Amino acid sequence: MDSLVEVYGLDHPEDKEIQFVVMFSKYRGRWGVGRQKGKTTWEVQGGHRELNEELNEAAARELYEESGARTFRITPVTKYSMTVDGEKSYGLLYYCEIFELGELPEEFEIEEIRWVDSFPENMTYGNLHRLLFKTIQQWNIEGTTWDNFTMREKKREDIKRFDQLAPHWKNTTESISVASRMIESLEISHHHKILDVAAGTGILLSVLAAKGISPNRYVAIDLSSKMLEQLTDEFPQAETYCMDFENKIKFDFCFDYIIIYDSIPHFDNLDRIFANARHNLKPGGKFIIAHSRTRVGLHAHHQRIGFKSPREPIPSRERLIELSFKYDFSNIEESDEEFFYYLGVKTINVSQ
Length: 352
Known about the structure:
The chain is α/β, with parallel strands linked by helices. Helix content is 29%, strand content 34%. It contains 9 helices and 15 strands. The longest helix is centred in the middle third of the chain and has 14 residues, at 173-186.
């Protein structure tokens, strides 16, 4: 197999062309190498970039999955290409400094992680590794810009829990009824584009189908791949992506509606979800956060099941208004009588 590696710097190619991220990471002065399950060779952290995933978010995700890093900082070093049998693909090389390690996640492909003073001879991608490591050694760290990350254990636990629940998940009659009323009030039609955030097994898509509404484009995202598998079992043509709306996300088109239904208690970074909604809605598009219970009703439900939330499961009216103004949402509607409902309209600026 013939291969050619070229290093470009950070200006070329455009970020949208990057398919892979590769990280040379250090913890307490030693380099991290991992061994995949069933293999005997070693490699630094890295992998494919997910659809619409920001590059730094992709690097942080891969670093966590393949090393167990909890608190760290990363910085891009150079873009590069690798041509194999005439097929060229582009990657972005990072240097990472890890401050806190947790357990290596069991659900991903890396079986063992080691921290070494020098790299072993049997690296999986020997030629590529040597060239990229040489680039790291020659790179000037002075004046670089760092991006800091802290990975949350709670999110990992949520993913595992919902993956386990997925095959047996049943939406309640109350939840379906409220979803139906909400869809009716939004007047969604066949020409609209909808982003269903934390879509689960597809309650909103089921309601749309029951009403005979086939949107121009429906996209479902969720942290749990198993939940999305249940969705596509019922709706094989559905467009689904396993991604985190608390990471920076930008689709290459915009939506008329972005809806978070029955899942707002699982989000911590409200600034990020409002920013993502802002960036992915058309001017005049609507951002909806709804729950089949009221604030009081959800609090009582959590008490019954013994769940203790570190914050209010549904944000306060004051907090929602603050975020709405911060991210240019207007025509705000909020109701908390029979069920919770928030709607904000993306402001149409003169420049747009």
